[in-house]
Write a structure and sequence with these properties.
The protein has five helices and five strands.
Amino acid sequence: MMDTATMILVADDEPRMRGVLVRTLAARGYHVCEAEDGDSALAVLRKEKNIAAVILDIRMPGINGLETFDNLKKEFPGVKIIVSSVYPEDEQKFFIDGADAYFLKTDDVAHLAELVSQVCCVKQGGGV
């Protein structure tokens, strides 16, 4: 068990997209958990105490990304949140303001890995 690897949670209701994100981050050395909706994401975070960042889809069944975001901020204020959507970044910010980063799903997934690295370095107090 590698305790030093950063743990990331991918919350996305689309299995194919979730799988791509999980595989991309795992290939970069991250431990990755996954959730298919907001309720599942919150349940994972309540169980796994070492999650550093959440990749959060805006449109999900049950509680949507905005409600999930609000719950995450209240319950887990130290966890970084990257909003992930097909909406352009300005629209993502309109729906969910205050995330640590925004990822456009049509971008190269390598860009997401860079965002995770940047967000997690900030969390750990690392500089550029």
